[in-house]
Amino acid sequence: MVFGTVAYSNDGADSAFQVLSQAIKNKSLYTRQKEERIASLKKLKAGDLSLSEQYAVNDSLYQEYKKFKIDSAVFYADQNLQVARKLQRPELVIAAQLQLSNSYSSLGKFLESEQILKSLSSKALPKPILMDYYDAYIQFYEHYATNSYNKNYVKLIQAYRDSLIIQLNPASVRYQINLIQKQIYQRDLKTAQAGLLRLLASAQKQSADYAMITYLLAFSNQLQHHTDIARKYYTLSAITDVRNAIKDNASLQNLALIFYETGDLDNAYIFTKSAIEDAIFCNVKFRTLRMSELYTIINTAYLEKEGRQKSQLKLYLVLISVLTVFLIIAVIYVYKQMKRVSRIKEELHASGKQLAALNQEISHSNVQLSDINAQLSEANQVKEAYIAQFFDLCSTYINKLEDYRKTLNKKANEKHVDELFKMLRSTTVVDTEVEGLYKVFDNIFLSLYPNFIREFNALLLPEEQVTVKPGELLNTELRIFALIRLGITDSVKIAAFLRYSLSTIYNYRTRARNKAAVSRDDFEKRVMKIGILPV
C-alpha cells in the first residue's frame, strides 16, 4: 500500500459521513453533557478547599473550557494565577501564565499573549514547563499567522517546534505528533503519513490524539490533492470533535471548504453553519474571522442555487397548473355536452311516443323534432370548435416551449452564460403566457356561461355590484368565482392558478360572502348553480 493514496471503501466513507451528520444534529446533547461535567467540578470548587486543591479544580475547569468557552478558560487561568502567587510556587505561576497566553491568542488578544511570553525566560524554566512554553509560542504564531500570514512566522513556528521536540520524550505520542507536523511543514508527506497511520492503529477513538492524528492525515492528503481521502479523515476528526463538544476545531471548517470546492453546496452550507456556530460559541476570534468569510461565500452560492431551483419549480408548477386547468375545463365541457345530448335523446323518445299516440300533433312534433335536430347540430359544432381550440392552444404552448428550449440551447452552445442566466431568471415568458392563459380562460368560460356576470351580480347587494374595466372580460374576483363555478373550490388550487397568495384568495371569498344578497352559507352554492338549464 502506498501512503498518501490509502485505499478505503466508499461505503466506509459514506457511513462516517452519516455518523457526522447525526452527530451535528445531536450537538446540543454533547454540549449539555460537557456542561454537566463542568457543573460537577464547580460543585467541588464551592466546598472548603485548600489553596492546592483550589488550584487543581481551577486547572480541571480550565482544561474543560479551553476548547469550549475561551472566556471562561481565561477566568479560571487567571484565578489559578492568583492562587499560585498565594502559594508562592513559581512553577505554578508560570503554568497559569502559559494557560493565559494560550487563551489570549485564541481570543485574538495577541498583544496580551505576547507580553506574557516575553516576560518569561526560557533559561529559567524547568523542563516540564519549558515544553509548555515552547508549545505556547507555537500556538501563538500559528494563531497570529492565520490573521496575518508572514514567512517569518512560519520560520518561528518551525524553530519553536524544533526546540519542543528536543525536550520531549521520543517515545511519547506528543513527540511523534510534533515530529510529524514538522515533516508536513517540510513537505515530507509520505514519511509523515506513514507515522500517522502507525499512531492511528494504536490511538483510542474519541480521544484528542485520535482527532489530531486524523486531522493531520486529512491535511497531508489535501496537500497532495487526494480530496476523497482528505474528506474521509476530516470527517473522522470532526466526529470526535463534535462528540467531545470541542468548539475550537478546524476539521469542520476544512470539510466545508472541500465540499464547496467540489460543488456540493448543500453539505458545504450545513458544515459551514455548524463550524461558525461553534466558533462564535467558543469565541475563537481567528476561526470566527476565517469562517465568516467562507460562510458569506458559501451562503451566497447556496442562496443562488436555491433561487434557481425555486424558479424552475415555479415554472413547472405553472405549466402543470395550466395543463390541469385545461384538462378540467375540457372534462367539464364534454360532460355538459353529454348531459345535453342525453336530455335531447330523452325528449326525442318522448316525442316518438307522442307521434305514435297523437297523429293529430304530427305537424307540431315534426317542428319540435326539427328544432331538436338543430340543437344537436349546434351542440356538435360548439363541441368541435372548443375541442379544436383546446388542441390549438396545446399545440401553441408546445411550439413555444420548443422555441424557448432552442433559444436556451443556442445560448448555451454559444456560451452566452450571462444571457442564459438572465433568461432563466426572467419571469417575462411565464408572465406573458399566464396573461394569455387568463384571456383564453375568460373567453371559453364566458362562451359556456354568457350570463355569468349578470347572474353573479344578482346574488349580490345592489350597492355591491361587480363591474369589469373596459377591455376586460373578467376581473380577479369574477375569475375566482368562475373557477368555483367550474368545481375548483380548493383555495390552494385557485391561488396556484391565479398566482396569488392563499390569504388573498381567502380575503376575496370572504369579502364576496359579506356582500351577498342571499345567505352567506349558501352564496357559493348558488354561484355553482349559475347557468344550469332548468330540467
Write a structural description.
The protein is mainly alpha-helical. The protein contains 23 helices and no strands. It has helices spanning 10-25, 27-45, 51-65, 70-87, 90-107, 110-118, 127-147, 151-167, 173-185, 189-202, 208-223, 227-243, 251-261, 265-282, 285-357, 362-413, 417-425, 428-448, 452-458, 476-485, 491-498, 502-514, 523-527. Helix 3 runs antiparallel to helix 4. Residues 1-9 have low confidence and may be disordered.
Short account of what is shown:
The protein is an all-alpha fold. It is about 80% helix and about 0% strand.
The ordered H/E elements are HHHHHHHHHHHHHHHHHHHHHHH
Give the amount of beta strand, in percent: under 5%
Largest sheet: none
Shape: elongated
Distance between the termini: 89 Å
Topology summary:
Elements: H1 10-25, H2 27-45, H3 51-65, H4 70-87, H5 90-107, H6 110-118, H7 127-147, H8 151-167, H9 173-185, H10 189-202, H11 208-223, H12 227-243, H13 251-261, H14 265-282, H15 285-357, H16 362-413, H17 417-425, H18 428-448, H19 452-458, H20 476-485, H21 491-498, H22 502-514, H23 523-527
Helix pairs in contact: 1-12, 2-3, 3-4, 4-5, 5-6, 5-7, 6-7, 7-8, 7-15, 8-9, 9-10, 9-11, 10-11, 11-12, 12-13, 13-14, 14-15, 15-16, 15-18, 21-22
